[in-house]
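Crash report, auto-generated. Payload:
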Amino acid sequence: MPVLGAIEAGGTKFVCAVGTGPDDVRAEVRFTTTAPQETLGRAVEFFQRQCRAEAIAAIGIGSFGPVDPDPSSPTFGYVTTTPKAGWTNIDFAGTLQRALGVPVGFDTDANVAALGEHRWGAARGLDTFIYLTVGTGIGGGGMAGGRLMHGLLHPEMGHIRVPHDWSADPYPGACPYHGDCLEGLAAGPALEGRWGRPGETLPAGHPAWRLEAEYLALGLVSFICTLSPQRIVIGGGVMQQAQLFPMVRQRVREMLNGYIHSPAILERIDAYIVPAKLGSRAGILGGIALARQVAGLPPE
Amino acid sequence: MPVLGAIEAGGTKFVCAVGTGPDDVRAEVRFTTTAPQETLGRAVEFFQRQCRAEAIAAIGIGSFGPVDPDPSSPTFGYVTTTPKAGWTNIDFAGTLQRALGVPVGFDTDANVAALGEHRWGAARGLDTFIYLTVGTGIGGGGMAGGRLMHGLLHPEMGHIRVPHDWSADPYPGACPYHGDCLEGLAAGPALEGRWGRPGETLPAGHPAWRLEAEYLALGLVSFICTLSPQRIVIGGGVMQQAQLFPMVRQRVREMLNGYIHSPAILERIDAYIVPAKLGSRAGILGGIALARQVAGLPPE
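Recovered output after restart:
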């Protein structure tokens, strides 16, 4: 089987890898995200070095955004209006494609991680599901009817509005665009801003986690009512707090109050709202899965 | 071209029609929704009478719900756990199919109206859009990636949670399941409950409409961030208040605050959030469009 390349492009860190799947990652490199020319240059270099050993059939990229994931658009493969300095209107996919001469797949980080979970993780066999990552931001992607979610642009699930009880939680929210949207209330910076120390230093019994579970449950209820996903897979640094999962599940069920009359929610919610099975590897493995598709290789 | 049948099944009223499209509805009947046997019997009778004149190739049904729209499910075509008395676990599609011996398509009222708007109305040519109806309830459907939205069950967009400023609006919400979900705050019964008289009797300049626009905008922002629709089409009795559209558009743009950097929202929002072009005919015409698909007829 031909080898495939993958990039997980975050706002702070790039991961590049070649391989064919979870049990066969042949090389991997990580470096800090700096200026686009330098950063993309390092990625190109890595793949050129790998190519000397073995031809790469295609590369799959999951990128921080906003991005243009529409193959029919003249700016397909661009990072578009990102607030990240220097990265506005950067032809990410095209740069790789021209330097390496291989087909390049390109989508949001969340959609590519969703694809990884779909092929090898917690979303196998599903055609409508959500992948949510809760870390320094909140990002969402997934599939609807068997296709990665696109539309006008791509989902920005972290930026939905949720009820915010100002008397119980006077923290105004950390989103520079929306203040107290879901991301503004529940991503890592909100934990640190509200409690005065990084989330990962708060003990499991701290009231922070009950409030965090409340906001996440409010978000999931909106996603469930909007999309009717068959499952919700959640990854990201904040979800390393395993105590969040049972609290989120309980509150989702309480908030829905029996209205969505499905055994998946009423009886088996433990299997409905689940951690990412590939953990922090969902993004890079999703890149390999995307490269497979772009190379026209059949499913295993 | 063969003639097609359609049913728009509401909790208070049934509409049945035969025809081939908006300019060719050959017969139509409306009656009150009573017990299932009586109501479905009247529908069967109507189509049997029509069949004497001309063979019907298929019937498309858009139903109040919740329903089971999954053709691979043993309860496909059922109205399932509806609070409407007598209608729990009723084999709607099967009853029609057995009595008439023709293929029957079946989906939610909102999805079928969305299909009507997709074929002949405001969503032509789009593959990812939302159709929302704001009336005695709030229902949503649409397409994602060219397919009607299904998943675990089907969207229940009216039941997302939105911020509710209790000091500005002490009305507790009218949803029997969730209190102040979007439907609880913004459907017809909330207008009447909050202001003490039916919405349609409130003058266009009444503060009711600014608050209504606020809640609808909060809902649309969540839908936009979750699904990234290419357009949002809104119908239903409450939206007869045409003054709502400019207020909703303005608030959506203000709330998104430039984050979704698309000309569709930043420059052409008048064409992004639009009234249903088929108006109150979206449901019954969508039924004809669904019947067309089920009959295996090619698009015009």
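Post-recovery validation: Residues 207-227 of chain A form the longest helix (21 residues).
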